[in-house]
Amino acid sequence: MKWYNLIIFSILTGLLLSLGWPENGHSFILFFSLVPLLFVEDYFLSNSKKIKVFFYSYISFFVWNVLTTWWIVNSTVFGAWSAFLLNSFIMAFTFYVFHLCRRRFNNNLSIFFLIPLWISFEYFHLDWDLSWPWLNLGNAFATVPKWIQWYEFTGTFGGTLWILISNIFIFLSIKSIINNYSARTKYFLLITSVLLIIIPILISKNIYKNYIEKEAPVKVVVVQPNIDPYTEKFSVSPDIQTNKMLRLSYENVDSTTDFLVFPESAIQENVWERRLKYSTSINKYKTHLINKYPDLNIIIGASSFKMFLEGEKLSNTARKFSDEDLWYDAYNSAFLINNSPKIQIYHKSKLVPGVEKMPFSQFFKPLEKFALDMGGTTGSLGTTNHRTPFISNKSLKVATVICYESIYGEFCSKFVKNGADLIFVITNDGWWGDTPGYKQHFEYSRLRAIETRRSIVRAANTGRSGFINQRGDVIKYTPYWKEAVIKKNINSNSKLTFYTKYGDYLGRISAILSVIIILLSLFINFLKRI
Hints:
alpha/beta
């Protein structure tokens, strides 16, 4: 195969992966998107220049990353290119490890090593300092919920498995035709390829058809204030922004409303958690809404701070005041405000690398001051170790997920495992402009609905707010860049899905299998050398 053919095949995989991605992509393309790259890898299987697999696969994954997440440049050019280059590198390295393991075993079945190795990469990518699982393959079916109702058993790793195994069998089918394998082998591979795609869809559609939500209505009002994050959010006074939120609420809230949901960082006043009763913004919400509607629960985002008391143990993210010997933590927070004197607080815990946390801060602590400023604070924010739902004044439990956290399946399911009957996502997607970014982020919430069988309420400052039912259907949403208020009755649910109980077990199994494959590969290589 000529070098330019290898480049064309590599680029083709990147293009196909991009064309299969939400919101405007066609998911069916993903079932054969990796086939060109598998042919490149297969070509080098008996070639001594094995390192070239890394470079050609890097081309594929770089094209995919750029074409699918190019919109990041609207918020940060440096951050975007860091994500493109590093994410492509990790993907290419994973594919290269697969190639090396396949060379060591040198048999037809070794191509299936790609499945546990790739899923292990995605699993690892969920929980480290440079976590960026936006392009985990299973996310790609977010726009076709009727295909993936079985995510309630597998989570998104089931989708990744589906894509990988379909690509492998389609690759083997094409290879069998090119190499003129026996008719029996050709038919087996072709029929298996078709069945691997069709059967999961048929199973899913049957689940979709038969899934009926239990009637347990909760009345929710969502406010999308549409405050420009670049020109208004941090320049207009907190009081003016609070008044706008209240104005939007007045005409839509009544005595039957259970929840009023505002977006991430809706309170722009710097709120000190040990002095909440003195917060001007919180007191306004209590005076103008809670006093009028005692059964109302308000969920709202804020930038909050907590002072460390004398003798109290400092966290890893503690900051020191420049002019005195006192320490504090900064948080991206969600509050639940109701007629109780105590305000419930949750701190965002899946932080955006480089924006809300300094990666590997234990090694680069002095560089924190250079962290990108996109939330009103710099440096690493504090987090919460537990996933405790908010409890309403009628004892309904609600998971409040802040922005980036909504792309983490097992993370969100822990709220549900701890009793959450609903999931609220509060976010601000205005950083990216009118691009696929906010659309993809909205669509990913549909995955969480299916995995946990929880209705989703999504409140965005700018972007897309809406309601999603327990089957992952979007039942109502707001237009982009419009001041809007929407309301809907949604159903709560207390039953736990298989996925909620066991989480990303496919990722853990794959990690174990990957360790075994790599160790056996090293052992075989050792035997060949002696």
